[in-house]
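Entry 14: structure prediction run for 4-oxalocrotonate tautomerase. Input pasted below.
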Amino acid sequence: MPILNVKVSGQKNIETTKSINELLLDLTHRILGKKKEVTAIAIEYVDLDCWFVGGKLLSEQGKNSFYFDIKITDETNTKDEKAQYIKEAFEGFERILGNLHEESYIYVQDVRAASYGYGGKTQEYRYHQ
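Run finished. Output tokens:
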């Protein structure tokens, strides 16, 4: 049931969008063990002239970047799983976007089961059922 909010530098492109979706859906399922059918991914594009790293525009640096956060239920994944997820996600975005700025970020956010849910039910409620 994770939700991923993704920001990608550049112009909106359906092929890039699909590639990012496939990458994140695979990694989230394969490494974090999350069900594909309840994984939601929202992808937004940010123009290179609107994204700064170190006070300089990406367009000036000739680089691409991304940021995404993923919300997962606390205590469902190990530190090693999250580290592997971040590593493979960065590598995947490098393949998709190319010329990736090192200051591209991934935030795996552990959220409390009693404060997180979908379909009108918390994960805590689902756990006890």
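Notes: The chain has one domain: 3-127. Will compare against the previous run tomorrow.
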